[in-house]
Structures are given as structure tokens and as C-alpha cells.
Write a structure and sequence with these properties.
Layout (H helix, E strand, L loop, with lengths): L11 E9 L3 H12 L4 E5 L12 E2 L1 H9 L3 H6 L10 E6 L7 E4 L14 E2 L2 H13 L4 E5 L1 E8 L4 E7 L4 E11 L6 H6 L3 E16 L1 H6 L6 E7 L8 E5 L5 E8 L10 H9 L6 E15 L3 E2 L2 E3 L5 E2 L6 H22 L8 H32 L6 H13 L3 H5 E4 L15 E3 L23 H4 L4 E5 L4 H14 L3 E5 L3 H7 L3 E4 L5 E5 L5 H9 L6
Parallel strand pairs: 1-2, 1-10, 2-7, 4-12, 10-17, 21-22
Antiparallel strand pairs: 3-6, 4-5, 8-9, 9-10, 11-14, 11-15, 12-13, 13-14, 15-18, 16-17, 19-20, 21-23, 23-24
């Protein structure tokens, strides 16, 4: 039975996909589905985006999504920090003003592997852009001001019970339901999906505040918008400042003792200690959360799926959260559309868990938790007051390796059951970035002979890139796609430089811009490549 099921629901609305939660991930998924003609209903309790500055760092990969969702320009226009100011970050030892610092999270080192620049703006600004884009899509219906209070599923549909602020109730039905409803997801709970938790036993605070003097103090770091402080007392956990705008608006998060929840706690002194100087502070918001990792043991069960924080949550380190959620939406969106439209096989939706669960598990262990452990070990081993020379050498090594994290973070699906990769590779966030096309990896951009970026030539379904390929082989892909009902665009280019750059004559690209298959020209491979890539053949 549906939790809190209400008798006498007043109306019934059918859709292909119901989305519980219209935050950035839910709205991104709605756009992905809506652009593919999938009837979608989103239920979101907040009528307007909540003005809390989180989820600010958007990677180049995320900006590729916004290009595909036709709202990249709108997003860049919404930024709160002028482009000429810069969106870089730094890491400092002890305090922000200690004199020990280096550039951190240098996303520009991987820029050439993606078709868009990274961006930085507060989540509420991002949500505003996504809401506007969703409103342009006729098959997307967003119910703002409604709260989900129950969910269920059976063999042929899923349902949501929703209630408005005035107490009006409705029951919505859909072929599928996706919970994008945060770490306390009702959809996940009602589907019976368990979570694996890793508690770091830390209470964290988020402060949103205003300070003119802090803006002046940090003028010495031009082009920086976020600042990470490593303090020995925090044992590897960060003190983190972020600039919200150039109007002296800031946010700060850090571990705090349990008594921080009590009235009268001195947050101003905490800010001063982290910076290493006194400055004016006007606090606008204080929020708390427990520092923990959580991952759903299944990303889907029956007709209910989870994405974003409903599927995984972690400390807000490195900007991984919102970007991982957007990739969930992109991955799940085309698979739901393919299934609804009849060209996706039985294994396609199951591959969502196989691909995305592995990537987040790797993100949590290989990047976020590892960063905390590495920082803790450094702070225990080096202290400029104890041994200035040893500290300087170790700090210099950290500075030299600061770009390594960005280079190594390359989510891939090489072990996915629906790509022609290496099963032993698994699906992981660890990689190295490469221009070569490899099954399960993101397609790096190249410029076609026409002068067009290859990403702009990709279709909304599958795309076959053919670089000097045999005409018969290309025709076999077209014929196989037509027989299977798979949407396929073909991009042919005889430039041998493209074949050399990608290391392949033929490249089958999925709707989410990941490579499904590469080859050099065998006609009978076409049907196998398309059938496995759409979940009709299991490995």
C-alpha cells in the first residue's frame, strides 16, 4: 500500500515518467526526457529555488549537458561572478593568510577533453535556468508547491500521492518513477531500497554571511572564488570558504562541536580563526548536517529509480555532488526514453545501476575519502613550526601534484554490460583522460573537416562516426538501426587525422556522448553493436 495513502483523490494524471523532486537533478532529468518527447510530471514542494549557495562548481562535463539541454548560454548569463574575475580555487595551510598556499582543483588542465568550459554559480541560479528551460517543453508538467507523501509500484505502473499547501490531494500515475528527492528520499524508502552508510562522526556547519573586509583581505588572491584551509586541529577535514558573488556574499562550511547547535555559539570567532584575521561578519544563514557517505544498494527496483542525493550523498568536497547527480540524469534519461519508445531492450534500464553505482563508489573512496585521509596524514607528519624545511619540501610536492586529482577523475563505463569494453575494468571514476575513442569512455571533442565540433554533429540518439570507413559497413549500421528501430545518425568524414586522433575508423556513440563500440570495418558487427548497446543482448 502507498504510505499515508489518502482516500478520495480528486484527479488522475498519467505520464510516462514521474519525478519526485524538482531540484537540479530532477529538472535536468525532466529536460532530458522532455526533449526526447517523453511525457513527464515533476513534483516539487518549493515554488521558488531556495537561496542557499551550494552546488556551485560545475565541471566541463556538466556544461556539456547544458549544451545538450539548450540552456548553456542562459546558465552562463546567470553567473554571479563575472567571467573575467575567474573561478579558480586555492588550498592554504593553517589559515587563509598564513602564506602557505597553492592553486587547487585546476579544472582547466582537462579543458581540451570536453566541448565546454566549466562554470561556477550558486545552485539556486542553476535551478532558475533549469526551471525556465523545462517550462519551454510541452511534454513536461511541473507541479510546484506540492509535496510527495507516498509512493508505490506494481507490475505495470508507479504512483505518487501528493498534497498541496492548501491540503488538496492527487494521485499521479506513470510507467516509471524516479526519486530525485534528496538524501531522505521517500521514493527510495517506499521502493524498499537499502543504503550503505559510512559515518565520519562529524557535525558540519554551513554559514552564509556578508563581509566587506573579507573581500578586501582576499584581494591578494586574484581570480579565486573558493578557498580550502587545512588546519591541524581538523585532522584532514576542511575549513572551506566560497565566494557567492562580488557583492561581499560568502559561504563557509567546516566541522563544529555538538554544542554549535546551541544558541550563542561563537561562529564569528571560528571564521576569524580560519582566515587568520578579524573582519566584519553579518551572518544570514546557519545550517547543519552530519558528515557521512551514503549510497543506495540499488539504483532501481522494479519501476522506481533513484538519482542524485537520493542515490548517493557525501561531504561537499571538490564539487562532486551536483555534477554526479547531473550525470545520473543524463545516463538514466536516454535509457528511460528508449524503453518507453520501444527501442530499449530488457537489460538497458538495469545498466543504469551497473554504470552509475560503480562510478559513485569510486568517487567516494578514490577521491573524497582518500583526500581526507591524505590530508590527515600530511597534517600529522608536517608542521612548519616543528621542521620548516621538511614542511616546505612536502608542501612543494603537494603544489606540484595539485592538478592530479582533476586529471585522474574520469568517470567511465568500460566494464558496463552494454558497452564493448573490458568487463574486468568495472565502472569507475578513476581514469586518465584520453583523446582516443574507447568503449565505455566519454568521447573527446575533435574538429571535423567542416569546421564543426564533433559534439555539435552528434544526434540525439546513437551516432556512428565513420572516418574513411567502407561504405558497405556504414550501410550495414543504417540497415540494422532501421530494423531495430534505433535512432541513428551517421557522421562521415574522410580526414585521416580524425581516424588517427581517435584510434578508430568507426565509433558508435551513445546518446549521452559515451562510446559504446569502436571498430575498423566488419559488416556483421553492426547488429551486435546496436543490440548490446541498447540492452537487447547481455554479455
Amino acid at each position: 500500500m502507498m504510505a499515508n495513502e489518502a482516500a478520495g483523490a480528486t484527479s488522475r494524471v498519467d505520464a510516462d515518467v514521474l519525478i519526485s523532486g524538482g531540484g537540479p537533478v530532477g529538472m535536468g532529468l525532466a529536460i532530458e526526457l522532455g526533449q526526447r518527447g517523453v511525457r513527464t510530471i515533476v513534483v516539487e514542494r518549493h515554488s521558488t529555488p531556495q537561496p542557499i549557495p551550494k552546488g556551485q562548481n560545475l565541471t566541463q562535463r556538466t556544461m556539456e549537458h547544458f549544451r545538450s539541454w539548450h540552456c548553456e548560454d542562459a546558465l552562463r548569463a546567470a553567473r554571479t561572478i563575472p567571467v573575467e574575475y575567474g573561478i579558480g580555487g586555492l588550498t592554504a595551510y593553517g589559515t587563509l593568510l598564513s602564506g602557505h598556499h597553492y592553486d587547487w582543483l585546476q579544472r582547466d588542465v582537462v579543458r581540451s577533453y570536453y566541448a565546454a568550459d566549466n562554470e561556477r554559480l550558486p545552485q539556486y541560479a542553476t535551478e532558475t535556468v533549469l526551471r525556465a528551460r523545462a517550462a519551454e517543453l510541452d511534454c513536461v508538467d511541473v507541479r510546484y508547491g506540492w509535496t510527495v507523501d507516498g509512493a508505490l509500484q506494481n507490475d505495470d505502473h508507479a504512483e505518487l500521492s501528493i498534497v498541496s499547501r492548501t491540503g488538496e490531494r492527487e494521485r499521479l500515475t506513470g510507467r516509471y518513477l524516479v526519486g530525485c528527492d534528496g538524501s531522505r528520499s521517500i521514493a527510495r524508502e517506499q521502493a524498499g531500497i537499502s543504503q550503505s552508510l559510512s559515518d565520519h562522526d562529524r557535525l558540519m556547519v554551513l554559514l552564509v554571511f556578508r563581509s566587506k573586509e573579507l573581500s578586501r583581505l582576499l584581494e591578494r588572491f586574484p581570480g579565486k572564488s573558493y578557498y580550502n584551509v587545512l588546519h591541524p586541529s581538523q585532522k584532514g577535514y576542511w575549513l572551506f570558504f566560497g565566494r557567492v558573488s562580488l557583492d561581499d556574499d560568502w559561504f563557509f562550511h567546516a566541522p563544529v562541536p555538538p554544542e554549535a547547535r546551541e544558541p550563542g555559539f561563537d561562529f564569528v570567532s571560528l571564521l576569524h580563526e580560519a582566515v587568520g584575521a578579524a573582519f566584519d561578519v553579518a551572518i544570514d544563514h546557519v545550517g547543519f548536517w552530519d558528515l557521512r557517505f551514503a549510497i543506495a544498494d540499488a539504483y532501481g527496483k522494479g519501476r522506481i529509480f533513484v538519482a542524485g542525493d537520493a542515490a548517493h550523498s557525501h561531504p561537499p568536497y571538490g564539487g562532486y555532488g551536483i555534477n554526479t547527480g547531473f550525470e545520473d540524469a543524463r545516463n538514466l534519461g536516454w535509457k528511460l526514453a528508449a524503453t518507453v519508445q520501444g527501442w530499449g531492450g530488457d537489460a538497458l534500464l538495469a545498466s543504469y545501476h551497473a554504470e552509475r553505482h560503480g562510478v559513485f563508489a569510486s568517487t567516494a573512496s578514490d577521491f573524497i575519502a582518500k583526500s581526507i585521509e591524505t590530508d590527515r596524514a600530511f597534517l600529522e607528519s608536517y608542521d612548519p613550526e616543528r621542521d620548516a624545511e621538511a614542511f616546505a619540501d612536502a608542501w612543494g610536492e603537494r603544489r606540484a601534484g595539485a592538478s592530479g586529482e582533476v586529471i585522474r577523475f574520469e568517470p567511465n563505463y568500460r566494464g558496463s554490460p552494454i558497452v564493448f569494453g573490458d568487463p574486468a575494468s568495472g565502472c569507475t571514476a578513476l581514469g586518465s583522460h584520453s583523446y582516443a575513442a574507447e568503449a565505455g569512455r566519454h568521447l573527446a571533442p575533435q574538429i571535423l573537416s567542416s569546421g564543426m565540433n564533433v559534439h555539435d554533429a552528434l544526434g540525439t540518439g546513437f551516432t556512428l562516426l565513420a572516418f574513411g570507413a567502407d561504405a558497405g559497413v556504414v550501410s550495414s549500421f543504417k540497415e540494422a538501426a532501421a530494423a531495430l528501430g534505433v535512432p541513428l545518425d551517421v557522421v562521415e568524414d574522410g580526414n585521416p587525422g580524425l581516424r588517427d586522433a581517435y584510434g578508430a575508423t568507426l565509433i558508435l556513440v551513445r546518446p549521452d556522448q559515451f562510446v559504446a563500440w569502436t571498430g575498423s570495418g566488419v559488416e556483421h558487427a553492426a547488429a551486435d553493436a546496436l543490440e548490446r548497446s541498447t540492452g537487447r543482448l547481455s554479455r
